[in-house]
Specification:
Number of domains: 2
CATH architecture of the largest domain: 3-Layer(aba) Sandwich
Order of helices and strands: EHEEHEEHHEHHHEHEHEHEE
CATH class of the largest domain: Alpha Beta
Strand content: 15-25%
Helix content: 25-40%
Strand order of the largest sheet: 8-7-6-9-10-11
Structural class: alpha/beta
Number of helices: 10
Radius of gyration: 19 Å
Number of strands: 11
Largest sheet: 6 strands, parallel
Distance between the termini: 41 Å
Low-confidence stretches: 147-158
Length: 267
């Protein structure tokens, strides 16, 4: 038995689940541990239950009573792909973030089918989805502020993408795709409207929960991501074979990583 810990916001949860699912597809007996959410209240708590996932949730009480014997705790050593995280013996409890598609690229079709929302969408999400479908060259733009601004620790780790990044990315989309229409997502819409006035744009301003915004991002033909696992998944789940995805080169202030996918344009 291998147990993979799930923690963090929706994007992080999806990375962790994708790694766990990849382990299962390689023949391991895998469960996910969501017990951390009893105390972890940030970013809306546990959200994978909105999706068509099928990995079993570990009974933490039984696990730590020793009925499932965990021989070893395994922790991800860095943000770079580590092939050793596939070379497990069983009976391990694994902690990490696995923020590169190298862990699960080969099961893309399985994940696309599992990361499908299994509940009724809100009326506003349906309205915005219909708007997106009207445009042949739609592009999602994600501006992450929130805790990246207000939380000193988060800001020190991640920083934020500056306005110059977004202006350059938007110009590239306009050059590559005629009549592009931009759908702008942000946790600070007021600031975004004031500081990033984009022509031919729709600002997604509805009170909903994260998985619906991520769904809308994935419907767009192209994506401009923030240095955020949330918009990373919006771009990765975009099934347009000819999509243009623009992402920041720098996802973290001082940590080497392989977050942005190989085919994405990095600014």
């Amino acid at each position: 038995m291998i147990i993979v810990r799930i923690v963090g916001g929706l994007g992080n949860q999806m990375f962790q689940y994708a790694y766990a699912k990849s382990l299962q597809q390689k023949g391991f007996d895998v469960q996910i541990d969501i017990s951390k959410f009893k105390t972890y209240k940030l970013h809306g708590g546990y959200q994978l239950d909105k999706y068509n996932i099928d990995l079993e949730i570990a009974d933490t009480f039984t696990t730590f009573l020793g009925k499932i014997k965990i021989k070893k705790n395994v922790r991800e050593k860095s943000l770079l792909f580590d092939e050793n995280l596939f070379s497990l013996n069983g009976n391990e409890y694994v902690k990490g973030y696995y923020q590169t598609e190298k862990y699960f690229k080969d099961i893309r079709s399985i994940l696309i089918n599992q990361f499908v929302i299994q509940q009724k969408l809100s009326e506003s999400t349906l309205v915005y989805a219909n708007e997106i479908f009207k445009f042949s060259n739609s592009c999602a733009v994600h501006i992450r502020r929130g805790d990246y601004i207000s939380d000193k620790k988060a800001n020190n780790i991640h920083g934020t993408c500056d306005l110059d990044y977004y202006h350059k990315a938007i110009d590239i989309i306009k050059e590559k795709h005629k009549n592009a229409h931009f759908f702008v997502f942000s946790d600070d819409i007021a600031w975004t409207k004031e500081n990033l006035n984009i022509e031919n744009s729709t600002y997604i301003n509805h009170k909903t929960i994260p998985h619906e915004d991520l769904y809308l991002m994935s419907l767009c033909k192209n994506n401009i991501t923030a240095n955020s696992s949330f918009s990373w998944w919006g771009a990765w789940l975009n099934q347009n074979e000819n999509k243009t995805v623009i992402s920041p080169k720098k996802w973290f202030n001082d940590k080497e990583n392989e977050v942005a996918c190989k085919k994405w344009i990095k600014l």
